[in-house]
Design brief:
This protein is α+β, with helices and mostly antiparallel strands. About 30% of the residues lie in helices and about 35% in strands. A seven-stranded mixed sheet has the order 1-2-3-4-5-7-6, sandwiched between helices. A hairpin with a 2-residue loop joins strand 2 and strand 3.
Length: about 180
């Protein structure tokens, strides 16, 4: 472990195309070895650039955390569902470099993502957590106000086993107390 990393400040900024190679590396690790994503093959840097552009062009927030100029993690919100009635609801994604998990980077990113999503006028945020055994992600979301809304049992097959999907939800801004 790098002791300097423990004290280095986390800086946040909107994702730029130049961040994508490091983001693709973080995501590839999650796809290859984890269960947070149900993708089976890690997408290329080119595909990750296309995905970033689609989110940013559609007006969704995409935030990068850096420590000493290196991407430590990233978070973004995207459409929860494509139909127009869902336009006030976003689904979040948060990924942190595996060698520095547990240092508050995920929480810093998720809080910033919530704040930016509220600023943009979104009303609900959904966390679709791969694998009910992903306790760290569940605790992270609970810590910032998400509530468990359901578990979809055995809906994904990865790493030789069936995996659940955990659904958590948090109101943003006025939530459902005012019309959109």
């Amino acid at each position: 472990m790098n002791a300097q990393l423990d004290t280095a400040p986390i800086t946040l900024h909107s994702c730029e195309p130049s961040d994508i190679p490091e983001i693709a590396t973080i995501y590839a690790e999650a796809v290859t070895h984890g269960t947070a994503s149900f993708e089976l093959e890690a997408p290329s840097v080119e595909e990750m650039l296309v995905r970033r552009a689609a989110l940013v062009d559609a007006g969704y927030p995409y935030i990068v955390a850096k420590i000493d100029g290196t991407v430590a993690g990233y978070a973004y919100a995207g459409a929860y569902r494509a139909r127009p009635a869902y336009r006030g609801t976003v689904e979040n994604s948060v990924y942190v470099r595996p060698d520095i998990k547990g240092r508050g980077i995920g929480r810093t990113l998720l809080v910033a993502l919530i704040e930016e999503s509220e600023r943009l006028g979104f009303r609900q945020m959904i966390a679709v957590i791969g694998d009910s055994g992903n306790v760290a992600s569940r605790r992270l979301h609970e810590a910032v106000g998400f509530e468990l809304t359901g578990v979809l049992k055995s809906v994904g097959w990865k790493h030789g086993r069936w995996l659940d999907t955990v659904l958590m939800q948090r109101a943003l801004g006025p939530g459902d107390t005012l019309p959109r």
